[in-house]
Structures are given as structure tokens and as C-alpha cells.
Amino acid sequence: MPISQHDIASPNVETAPVPVDICADRLKDLKTAIDTQDVDTAREVLRELHYADKAELLNLLDEEGRQELTAMIADSFDKDILPELSTEAALDVVETLGPDKSAEVLTQLETDDAIHVMGELSPETQQDILNVAPAVLREELEEGLSYPEQSAGRLMNKRLICVPEFWSVGQTLGYLRERTDLPENFYVIYITDPKFHPVGRVTLAKVTQSQLDVSIASIMEEDSYAVQTTTDETDVAFQFWKYGLVETPVVNAQGRLVGTITVDDVVDVIHREDEKDLLQAGGVMSQDIQLGVPETLKQRFPWLFINLLTAVLASFVIGLFEHTIDQLVVLAVLMPIIVSMGSNAGTQSVTVTIRALATRQLKPSSYLAAIRKEVVVGLFNGLGFAVIMGVCAYVIYHDARLSIVFALATIITLGIVGLFGALIPLILHRLKVDPAVSSTVFMTTVSDVFGFLIFLGLATLVMM
Amino acid sequence: MPISQHDIASPNVETAPVPVDICADRLKDLKTAIDTQDVDTAREVLRELHYADKAELLNLLDEEGRQELTAMIADSFDKDILPELSTEAALDVVETLGPDKSAEVLTQLETDDAIHVMGELSPETQQDILNVAPAVLREELEEGLSYPEQSAGRLMNKRLICVPEFWSVGQTLGYLRERTDLPENFYVIYITDPKFHPVGRVTLAKVTQSQLDVSIASIMEEDSYAVQTTTDETDVAFQFWKYGLVETPVVNAQGRLVGTITVDDVVDVIHREDEKDLLQAGGVMSQDIQLGVPETLKQRFPWLFINLLTAVLASFVIGLFEHTIDQLVVLAVLMPIIVSMGSNAGTQSVTVTIRALATRQLKPSSYLAAIRKEVVVGLFNGLGFAVIMGVCAYVIYHDARLSIVFALATIITLGIVGLFGALIPLILHRLKVDPAVSSTVFMTTVSDVFGFLIFLGLATLVMM
Fold this sequence. Notes:
2 copies of one chain form a homodimer.
Chain A lengths: L21 H14 L3 H9 L3 H10 L2 H11 L13 H22 L2 H10 L2 H10 L2 H12 L5 H4 L6 E3 L4 H10 L9 E5 L5 E6 H6 L6 H4 L1 E2 L4 E2 L4 H11 L3 E5 L5 E6 H19 L11 H28 L1 H6 L2 H29 L8 H31 L2 H31 L4 H29 L1
Parallel strand pairs in A: 1-2, 5-6
Antiparallel strand pairs in A: 2-3, 3-4, 6-7
Helix pairs in contact in A: 1-2, 1-3, 4-5, 5-6, 5-7, 6-8, 13-14, 14-20, 15-20, 17-19, 17-20, 18-19, 19-20
């Protein structure tokens, strides 16, 4: 596990700040050093930093700055920076380093990190690196890249510790001391049978706390957390979270132990997922805050454009009732209330359904019950608000028919958005589309179109 | 780290399902067993389950079911279930177990887990347990509860491994083998000076890979990741994620090592945070999918009611321009488009700002720049859409003044929501209110009110 000299909080000072401001403070110095091609200063700025902070600085620079800085520090490039870079930064750095140097750096990384970096590159750049990579690395990378994106195979480290069942604790500790090709850090020792099928595991802590003559088999726990190389990374993350795992074995289709996934990789997955969900729901990207205005516009405009189409559709529905509104302008005053209630109630249903899918609380057998519940909740909420809103409308406008239309529209709209609020994520999930990303657009369309249609339609029927 | 017999995926089968459906499948059997007071069947259902799954089953039962089941299995209650329970379930279970049995179970837990459980209980129940708890436990719990909620002090485990600088690897390993009061799992050994200030750390993996006569000081890394007992848990989680930590020391105000936080606790924090953010943004709760209709209504109604007030405010704004709309009903057709664009652009700004605050990319020194950027992006986006929407409106309605009003309103609205989209989360953050929870309400109010006000106001000025 990475530990550096980086001065975050000297333990004997009164306050221990978290490492918040390091990068921004040094970015300016670094930019000056790059502009003046001052290699010594650049090195000085980076010298005491943790590799995650170095990577953040590279992420914060623009393309040109990244390329210049990489060229300046290429001969002593810190390998651990690579896996921490954003996709764009990784591309710039690898292209500047060139295939030979990149392959050299990748060789020093653990398998999962090297594969992660390769996954960020274009197929051409990948091929350039594979062409010059040493045979062992090439094989590892090609195997890693052969697993589906976001699968356990991409996350796993191929270097792991496994010992046979008949060994003692003393033998195991002796083996650890002698071997020099072990991973940098590990928490678990796997016990495998002669065919390399995992039969159990024991934590390193337990090994060190046991007497030397005790057999490994007697302190191991039967292993039941193995994931397949093809398991989706979000399923892996869920398993780590639910069972509080620190490390889990990965087996291939034949059940042979082929790798191990550690919790630090999973923390990255969780963060990536949440970031993706949150930001894609608004059509913005993780790096947004660091982008310039033109890049930001390029990111955000398309999402707003899709929304414009939705809004135009809603507007078209209103247009159908232009005549009704012309006769009864109060409808224009009240209609946004119905749509707003529908949109919020729909968001509630969508949010609950997405979350229940993500936390595995919702399975195919309970889809129907979930949909029914959302409709019923929608209708009851609708009933409650129909009374409140109907009475208020009557007090203000003294028009019984208007109040009844307003109240009825509320009930029906909330029922319909409840139905679609459950249906949309479930259908997207079935179609293997991430519901967190695209449910919002569909839900907005439904609540806008139906909200206006029901209220104005009812008004036309009853009041015209 | 918890490992059980739980049969998730036998490693030598072709497919390794993740543990998705276990609980729902067994819930029915369990309910029947509870209804018939069939203790043997209840035990049978629970027997081979991981404690996280047992806890999930308890979470899924209603209050009565939880109490009955707890009473049925009280004499062999699995201690590890407690920290995994939801707040309501923990309360029901602890009340059923009674103070004496609860204190007995808490004694067997690690400090952080025991404190977490206590934190879920009411002050009265806490006091009942403290009154009967053994002195050591009482002291630990009282100390733990004295730290602010969601601080590192609440997360830390007080049992940790630390050795003096002058020890050798052999001495250290001997010490681990002899001690019996060590934590169940640990990944790091801390090295402290005589005053108990941490001076360094070494991973257990590195200790086991070093020769026995090597001194601990020569393989340790200087420790610079210490957090204070008062550090906020989200700051701790950020540090774990950014630096890929597995364990971090916790020091008190005097810089003395008082505890250690492990990554599994942090994974829980990350999950809690994300769940909270996602769900509170929609006014719904994590357990929603499992609630009955009446409880669900109780959860969701208040959020919709707040939204109703917002919508009424927007409706009031439209009402001010009733006369204008009466003369020009096309305004009612077009106005939802402006508001919808404003609402979506505002959401983008809010999302980006909240995320930048959460990932520590936005610091007070760059607040002004962030606000300026959102306004500029809003105005440019507005300009783009003004052209598109203005031209379309002209093509449809052949009314130059209407098209100009429509276009101008778009630009101004998107500029204003950009301003508030950055301002609202920043102000809430300054006021120490979680911006992820309450920004949405304010943003909706702003985009609704200003959207209608600007479009209808401009129309009244220019066209009436």
C-alpha cells in the first residue's frame, strides 16, 4: 500500500488538516516552471508529493502543459502516477513518453494498474505499446484486455500468494520471507488444491498470530467469496461493501484461481460509479470544474439540447389546447403546478427504483409488486394533494368545475408518473442500459407531456 | 475480516453468481417460522448465512417480526449482526435483548462497531446499557460517544498494534504470536516513540517479507496520514480514496496515537454518504423499497409539499401576467420551454459545484472564479439556444418581437441560473448545511420564478 513522505499532517501538531489544498497551491509554481522550461524547479515542486497529488497536478494542466512537463521529467517518471491519471491526461502522458518508455513504466506496475492504464488508451496506442513490450508484459496485458471492460478480470492483480493445504504456519512465513516476486501488499493468503482451485483463505494477521507448527489448513476459512473474471465490477464492489471484504479471489471459468482483487481497487470503482451516476444524471462530467468555458460548453450543450426537444414536445401538447387556454387563462397559471408535482413525484419513484436495483434489493420476482406500489403511492399522494390544491383553487377562483379538474388531474398525473417512475428504470435495466444515466430524460418527458395533457385535456372536456 | 461459510459461489462451478437473491428467498420461510413460533426452523434459515445477510433479513422484517425473531434467537445472538442493522432495526433488537444482554453482545464487538451501534440508539436506551455495562466497555463507549457524530473518533478502533522503534522484525512477529488481545484483523503495525506519538508504520506484508534480524525502524515508512479524532468522516474517506489507504492512525489533540481506522469502515462511510445524497435529493429514504404504502406516503409527502409551495410561488408569478397571457396565449405555450431549460442548466451548475466541493476540488480561493465561470457558461449556452429557439419560434409564429423576447429571455434565464447554481451550494456549504440535500429545492424555486418572471416580464414590456 502506498505510503510516502508527503506532509499531510504531522501527528504532533494541534490540527491535522486533510490534504485539500496541496495541488492548487503548487499548480502555479509548476506552470511557471513549465513555461520557463525550468526542470529543477519542476522537480522540486513534485519532489515531496504523493503520486496521487502528482497525478492530480497533471490532470489539472492543459494538454500542452502535460506534454511539456512529461518530457521534462520523463527520465525519472514515477510509475504510480499513471493509473491515477484521467483518461485525457493518460493519453497525453503516454504519447509523450513514447511506446518504449511507456512499456518500461507499465512493466513496473501491478497487473491491474497496467491494464487499467492500457484501457484508457486508443487501440492504436495500445498496439504501439504491445509491439515493444517484453513478452511477459505483453501476455499479461493482452489477457487483461481480453476481459470485458468493467469486469473483475480487469480489476484483478495476477500476483497473489497461495500455498498448499499441508503447509504449516512456519513454512508459510518462511516462504514469504524468501520469495522476492510477491505483490507489494497483500492481506490474505489463499490455500489451493493441486489443480489450483481455491479451497480456503487465511488473513495475514491470523497467520502472524498463530504458532509456527500449526497447519495452515487448520486456521483457514473455507473460501466462498470467489468472483469470476467476467463478473461486473459493480457486483464485485457490492460484495466487498456488503461483506466487509478486503481482498477476494478471482477464478476463471474452470474454477482455477487466476487473480485477486483488493479493496483499494474497489474503492476506486465505487467512486467512479457514484461520480458517473451523479454527473451523468445532469449531463456533466467529473472534470467539469477544471475545464475552460469552451470545453464546458461542449460537454453541457448536448444534454440541454436533448432537454430542449423534451420541452418542445411538452410545448406542443400545450399548443394543442391553445384554444382552451385562450378562453380560460387561469389554466396557464395552474398548469405548471401539476407538471411540477408530477416531475417531483416521478423523480422520487425513479430514485427509489434505481437505488433498489443498485443495492440488489429489487429482483425480477418483485418487479410487479414494486410497480404496483409506486402507482398506489402515487394515487394516494395525488389524493392528498388533490384535496389541498382543489380547496385552495376553489378559495381563490370560486369555480367548482375548475377545482375539480385541478384535483382530478393531480390524482391521475401522480398515478401515471408513479407507474412510469418504476417502469422506466426497470425497462432500462432489462435492456442493460444504466438506468441512473438515462431515466431522468424519459421521466421528464413523461411528467411534462402527461401533466399538461391530463390537466388541459380534462379542462377541455369538462369546462368547454 | 469477516469470512463465513456462506455459500455465495463455489469456486469450481461454471458461474459465480453474486449474493443478490439470498435474503428475499429466505424471508418467506423466516416469516412463517416466526408466525408459528418455530424456533428450530428460524435457526435453520439463519444458520448458514453471513451476518450481513442475517442483518438484512432483520431489516426487512417489520417491528413485530424483528422483536419476535430476536426473542427466539436471543440466547445465541450473533454479535456481528448488530452493526449491520438499520437504525430502526437496531433499536427494536436492542430493546428486545434488554440492557444486560445488549451490553454483553457489545462487549464482544470491536470498539468502533460498538460505538456505531450505540450511536443508533436513543439517549435513554444508551443510558440503560451504560448503567449495566462492565467498567471497561462503559469507559470505551462513553469516550467514543463523546466524539462528534460522523467524526474519526467514532469510526476508530482503539485496539491497534504498535511497537517501539528499536525492535527487530523477529521481536515483532514474536509479540504478535504471544498477545491474545489483538484486534481480529489488522494490516499495519505502527511504530511509536515513548510518548506514544506515531513515528512510522509498516505493512504486515512487509514485516512478513523481511528477515528476522532486520530492525523495524529500517523498514518503516514515516507516517504522515494521521487524522485527528475530530476529523469529519467524509474527509477521512476522501483521504483513503485519494491515497489508496487500507488503514490510518488516529491521534488526539496532543498527537498521541489513540486508534486506527480501517478501510472497511470507510467503504461504509462512502456508501452512506452517496445513499444519503442521492436519496435526500429526491426526498426519499434508503429503506423506501421495503416500506409499506402508509410509511412510504409519510416519507414522501413532506418533500412534495415543499415542492408544492415552490410551484405555487411560480404560479403566483404567472398570475401577475395573467392579463398579458390573456392577450397573447402563445406565451403560455412557450413559457414552459424557458423554465425547463433554466431548470436543467441550473441542475448542471448545482451538480458540478456540489461535486467539486465534495471532491475538494473547489476551495474558498476559487469560489469567485467558479461563480464567474457558471455565469459565463450560462450566458454562452443561453446565446446558443437563443439562436436556435428564436429562429424556430419565428418560423412557427412569424412574429419578430415574440422571437426576440423568447431569445433574450433564454439568455438572461440561463445566466441567472448559472449564477445561482454556483451560489446556492457555496452558500449552503459555508453555512455548514449539506448542499447535496437542499440545493435542489432552492434551485427549482430560482429557475421557476426567474424563468416565468423574465419571459413574461419581457413580453409585457416589449409586446404590450
